[in-house]
Each structure stands twice: as C-alpha cells, then as structure tokens.
Amino acid sequence: MKRLYEADAYTRDWPESHWRRSLPVPAPAPRLTGQATAEVAVIGAGYAGLSAAHELVTRFGTDVVVLDAVQPGWGASGRNGGFCCLGGSKLSDRAIIRRVGDEGARAFHLFQRAAIDGVADFLQTHGIDARQGPEGETYLAHTPAAYRALAEAAAADPTARLIPPEALAEAGLAGPAFHGALQVAHGFPLHPLAYVEGLARVAAAAGVRIHGDSPVLHLAPEGGGWRLDTPDGTLRAKRVLVATNGYSSEDLPRWLAGRSLPALSSIMVTRPISAEERAAQGFTSALMAADTRTALHYFRHLPDGRFLFGMRGGTSAAPAAIAATQTRVRVHFDAMFPAWTGVETESRWSGFVCLTGSLAPFVGRVPGAEGLFAALGWHGSGVAPASRGGRLAARLIAGAEADIPALMALPPRRFPLPAFRRTALAAGYLAAELRDGALPRSPRP
User: Fold this and answer.
1) Residue 264: closest CA among 318, 324, 315, 320
2) How much is the average pLDDT of 270-284?
3) Residue 388 main-chain phi, psi, to 5 deg
4) Which of 38, 47, 116, 162 is surrounded by the fewest CB atoms within 10 Å?
5) DSSP symbol at 20
6) Which are the contacts of 324, defined by CB distance < 8 A and separation ≥ 6?
7) Looking at the structure, do residues 227 and 376 belong to the same domain, yes or no?
8) pLDDT in tens, 342-375
9) Domain co-membership, 267 together with 352
10) Count of CB atoms situated within 10 Å of the CB of 1
C-alpha cells in the first residue's frame, strides 16, 4: 500500500480518544479468509462505505462485502469532532457558482441539507443513541472583517441569526478571539463512533458482510469484474466502491494517485467543566461552533460537561510531531478560553480529513475502469455528506437514478506537483496563519 504519511498514522491501534473510552468495544468484525465472492465490494467501513452497503442491500437486494483495514469506525468516521453539519467542500459559494453555475450551487446546497436530515432520520429509525445536542451551528468571526462577511451571509438566509460583538456574552459566546457570530439552523452534534458502530450493526443485520483487519493490498480487474487481495483472503466482485477518504492508498486504484491530500486534524477533550467555570468564561452555548479562520478551530460542550476543542495543522504523523501539534492545540485553547487554563486535558488524538485536487467531494465512476466507483473527499465535514454520498454511490452502482450534484460528479483533479503535497500544505498553513492574524496572548507561561 502506498500512503502519503509516515507509517505511524496507519497503525492498527485505536486512538486514545474520548469516543473510544466512552463506549463498550464491540465484537470485532472477522477477517476475510480464503476465497469469497460478492456482487459489490466496498473498501472502507466508515460513513460512506457502510451507508452505501446498507443502501445496496436494503433497497436493491445486492450481495455486498465491506472490507476495512482495521475495524468499522477506526478511521475518520470514529475519531472526528461529531459535527453533523453543512459542508463537504473547501470552495467558496462564488467558486462553486463559477464551476457549476447557479443551479449546480443550489443542488449542492440542497444535498447538504438532505444529508443532515438523512443522518437524523437514520438515527431515529434505528434507535441509535448518538445525538448530543440541539439543532444549529455557530460560526464565530475571528476579525471584524470576518463578521462583516457573516452579515452578508445572514442576509441570504432568513433562518440565520446574526449576533453582533456586543451581544456575544449574552448569547453565551464570550471570548477574546470572537468578533460577532452567525447562527444557522442546520446540523446537530453527535457521538461519531456511536453513529458509525450503530451503522455497522444495522448494515450487518440487513445482510452486509463486514470484514475487519482485512486491508486491501491489491486491486485489479479480472474476468469482467475485480479481484481484491487481503493478507488472508481474496474477494472477487463485479463492482467495487472505494470509500477510504483520508486513509486511501495512492495505488488503490492507481487513478487516485495525486488526487487527494490527507490533512491532520487534532482534538482534545477536557475534564468536566463545572457550571461556575463555564460562567466564568462566559462560553455556555450548547450549539456546536467553529471560527472563521482558514485553519479553523471547532469546539463544543459535550453532554457530560466536558469540552471538545479541535483544530487543523501539522504535516507529519511522526510521534514527536503529533505531540508538538497537540501541545499547540492546548496553547490555542488557552488563548481562546483563558478562564479555563486550569482545566485539565483528559484525552487527545488526531486523524486525517481528506482534501481533493478540486477542493470538492467526488461520488462517481472511476474514469477508464469499468465497474469501479469512488466516494470520498469530504474536506473535514464528512459526517453528513459522506453518509448521503455513500447512498448516492449505491444508487449509481445499482443503475438507479442517483441525482448526484454536478459539483460532486466531476472527477477530482490531480494536485500540481503531487510529490510535494505535504510541502505545499505546510506553506498553506503558514499563509493561513499570516492571513488570519495572531490569537490573543495566552495567559499561560
């Protein structure tokens, strides 16, 4: 397997995350051993892969096998911040309109809304206890200019609520790094691992065969279908869906090489914060939140009183580099929430989001490879888009009407000079920091 980062990023150990600690460990999905066949093989047991498999079995009666390198939810689907929200692309609204026109932009917006609703409906229908908070999301301006941009966005959304700087404290959004806010009515927080493991249970009960500890080492066309080799077995399938997102191998398939860029996102969770401590900081809102920085911060109160804080950054998965990034996360947390500098960190972990060369997600046929499909590139907001994207991929695979937004149907471009993607990412982070400006000084020494 050909990966872009150090081997430390792909070890089969589970991250020491709050999510893993807060749930019982399910029985592992068995390895694939010997010879097996299926109508459709899915590579990746995350939101997209499992949603596609469930859709294929329940709607189309398809025989499906899902292969995962570790276990369902081990990747980004089980270690993200739990924001079921709008997103999926790093393009601005204007850039989306330039690429696919006004109608295409509207279709992508409707896709995002439907994706959130789809996750909510799935959780309710199948009794998965994963929701963690109220509807809506807050975007906090990191500069006065960013607040003016939020005000323009609010004018186009009659359901949005604009909060001026002087009203932040009253709204429970106080902090020295914030200059106003926009609250939208869409999205909700959830326990990401509870969702993906619940999704795996529902899919398996419907007849999906899920195999863990079965990394696909080789993928090749054979006899009008595809052959997938794992360490202990071989699976032959008529069609294949690649749904590995930021944990993709550059040569599975070769077409993917240079088209995606995994980017590290790091998260910390504090000990429970008391009501008095919350009041002292003045950040008490139960809505999930993110700031408007290019290298954004995202954060929210958890139901048990803990506080989750995450940010992008870091271009190495070596242990020393990860430790340095996690230290930086804490420094940023202290600067943004100075009243909580004495609140201890209980857990911290990291994982990959996935960018594409087109800065947009992709759901479609792999060009030049009959029977091969891909669904990936959720750009750090994949809970909802990956779930719906997987279901749209299933419809495409089954030959049904898929109604994939034009933005997502375009195959992703290759990054310029793909061998230097991580170098370019480091330069991009530096430029973003210069553009975003400094955080308030942390009171910590």
Assistant:
1) 315
2) 98
3) -70, -35
4) 162
5) H
6) 314
7) yes
8) 999 999 999 999 999 999 999 999 999 999 999 9
9) yes
10) 14
Domain membership of residue 270 (yes or no) is yes
By three-state DSSP, how is residue 258 classified?
Answer: coil
Token pair belonging to 259: 């088209």
Secondary structure of residue 228 in the 3-state scheme = strand
Q: Tens digit of pLDDT for each residue in 233-273?
A: 999 999 999 999 999 999 999 999 999 999 999 999 999 99
Domain coverage including residue 144: 132-189+262-356+425-436
Q: What is the largest CA-CA distance in the chain?
A: 67
pLDDT per residue over 124-138, tens digit each? 999 999 999 999 999
Asked whether residue 235 falls in the same domain as residue 368, the answer is yes
Q: What global pTM score does this model have?
A: 0.97
Residue whose token pair is 């589970």: 14
18: enclosing H helix or E strand: helix 18-21
The 10 Å Cβ neighbour count of residue 383 is: 27
Is 122 a member of any domain?
no
- Looking at the fold, whether 351 and 271 belong to one and the same domain comes out as yes
3-state secondary structure 97-155: HHHHHHHHHHHHHHHHHHHHHHHHHHHHHCCCCCECCCCCEEEECCCHHHHHHHHHHHH
Cβ contacts of 83 within 8 Å, gap of 6 or more:
137, 187, 189, 288, 290, 298, 300, 381, 383
CATH number, position 171: 3.30.9.10
Q: Which residue blocks in 61-92 are alpha helix, DSSP H?
A: 76-79
* 175 shares its domain with 204: no
Distance set, CA 358 to CA 271, 362, 392 (Å)? 39, 9, 20
Asked if residue 215 is part of any domain, the answer here is: yes
The Cα 183–Cα 136 span in angstroms is 7
Q: Domain count for the chain, please give it.
A: 2
CATH number of the CATH domain containing 368: 3.50.50.60
Query: Is the pLDDT at 219 greater than 90, yes or no?
Result: yes
pLDDT tens digits, residue range 173-205?
Answer: 999 999 999 999 999 999 999 999 999 999 999
Tokens 């989001």 found at? 353
User: Is the pLDDT at 329 greater than 60, yes or no?
Assistant: yes
Q: DSSP H helical segments within 309-420, as ranges?
A: 319-336, 383-397, 406-409
Say if 232 falls within a structural domain.
yes
In angstroms, the Cα distances linking 367 to 165, 236, 410, 428 are 49, 20, 10, 30
Question: Quick one: 276 and 325 in the same domain?
Answer: yes
The helix/strand count (H/E) of the chain reads as 11, 18
Alpha helices in 208-318 (DSSP H): 275-281
Do 332 and 382 belong to one domain? no
- Residues 30 and 68 occupy one common structural domain: yes
